[in-house]
């Protein structure tokens, strides 16, 4: 059974760096084709894809976001970490991590974490 | 980036109704489209991948169709648990993008 769970601060101040951790079980990020992504959703708004990291450490980012986005993985701990620098109130959102199935050309998400609400405010 | 435009943005319907939601891509994406259902305070749930492939456990009243730029999600007979917001997502290229959502509520 695949599960994912996001953890991190609920409140960050403007200009600070946000670090979110996705801890997962039921799959390995060393398995060919597997990837984990981050998606966020501002209150009352649509979903926005942020980043994706593959089993081979290939990384993809949404270019519409500023360059301060970094995704990393720790395969031994079954964790994926997202960092966002220079946070702004517009970054207030629920942040989800999600599993991408190990199927070629299939960058969709079949399992999601419950989400973590992050508020950016001074 | 490939833009996805869903219509309508919101929809009121009754239990038993047949409902169709449209997703239009700004350029051809073959069949690289997924549909999700999201209920308030919950994570999205994958319903359909590759434009028409129903995920395991998803009721057969849900169906998807379309290719390239025009896609539809159809619910053949609405059930009370289907009232939610629905999103399409393209995975033909990067960045991965989502539609703006269609809110389906009870008439």
Keywords, separated by commas or semicolons:
heterodimer, A: mainly beta, globular, B: 107 residues, mainly beta, four-stranded antiparallel β-sheet, 11 strands, 50% strand
Structure report:
The complex is a heterodimer of chains A (122) and B (107). With 122 residues, chain A is mainly β. Chain A has no helices and eleven strands. In chain A, strands 2, 4, 5, 6, 9, 10 and 11 form a seven-stranded mixed beta sheet that branches. A four-stranded antiparallel beta sheet of chain A has the order 1-3-8-7, with no helix packed on it. In chain A, a hairpin with a 6-residue loop joins strand 4 and strand 5 (48-54). The radius of gyration of chain A is 14 Å and the shape is globular. In chain A, 34% of the residues are buried. Chain B has 107 residues and is mainly β. Chain B is 0% helix and 50% strand. In chain B, strands 2, 4, 5, 6, 9, 10 and 11 form a seven-stranded mixed beta sheet that branches. In chain B, strands 1-3-8-7 form a four-stranded antiparallel beta sheet, with no helix packed on it. In chain B, a hairpin with a 6-residue loop joins strand 9 and strand 10. The mean pLDDT of chain B is 97. The chains are: A mainly beta (122), B mainly beta (107). The interface between A and B is medium-sized, with 24 and 23 residues.
Low-confidence stretches of chain A: none
Strand/helix succession of chain B: EEEEEEEEEEE
- Gross morphology of chain B: globular
Quaternary organization:
heterodimer
Basic shape of chain A: globular
What kind of sheet is the major sheet of chain A? 7 strands, mixed
Distance between the termini of chain A: 40 Å
Overall structural class of chain B, as computed from helix and strand content, comes to: mainly beta
Q: How does the helix and strand content of chain A classify structurally? A: mainly beta
Using only C-alpha atoms, the radius of gyration of chain B works out to 13 Å
Which two chains have the most extensive interface, and how many residues on each? A-B, 24 and 23 residues
The poorly predicted ranges of chain B are none
Mean pLDDT of chain A: 96
Helix content class of chain B = under 10%
Q: Tally of extended strands of chain A? A: 11
């Amino acid at each position: 059974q695949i599960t994912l769970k996001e953890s991190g601060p609920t409140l960050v101040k403007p200009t600070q760096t946000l670090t979110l951790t996705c801890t997962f079980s039921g799959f390995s990020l060393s398995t060919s084709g597997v990837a984990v992504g981050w998606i966020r959703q501002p209150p009352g708004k649509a979903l926005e894809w942020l980043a994706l990291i593959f089993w081979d450490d290939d990384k993809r980012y949404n270019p519409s976001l500023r360059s301060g986005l970094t995704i990393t993985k720790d395969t031994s701990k079954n964790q994926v970490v997202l960092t966002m620098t220079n946070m702004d109130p517009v970054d207030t959102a629920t942040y989800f991590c999600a599993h991408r199935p190990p199927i070629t050309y299939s960058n969709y998400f079949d399992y999601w974490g419950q989400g973590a609400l992050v508020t950016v405010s001074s | 980036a490939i833009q996805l435009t869903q219509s309508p943005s919101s929809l009121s319907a009754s239990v038993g109704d047949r409902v169709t939601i449209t997703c239009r891509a700004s350029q051809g994406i073959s069949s690289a489209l997924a549909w999700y259902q999201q209920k308030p305070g919950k994570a999205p749930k994958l319903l359909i991948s590759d434009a028409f492939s129903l995920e395991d456990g998803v009721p057969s009243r849900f169906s998807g169709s379309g290719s390239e730029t025009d896609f539809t999600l159809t619910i053949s007979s609405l059930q009370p648990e289907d009232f939610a917001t629905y999103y399409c997502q393209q995975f033909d290229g990067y960045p991965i993008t989502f539609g703006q959502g269609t809110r389906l509520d009870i008439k």
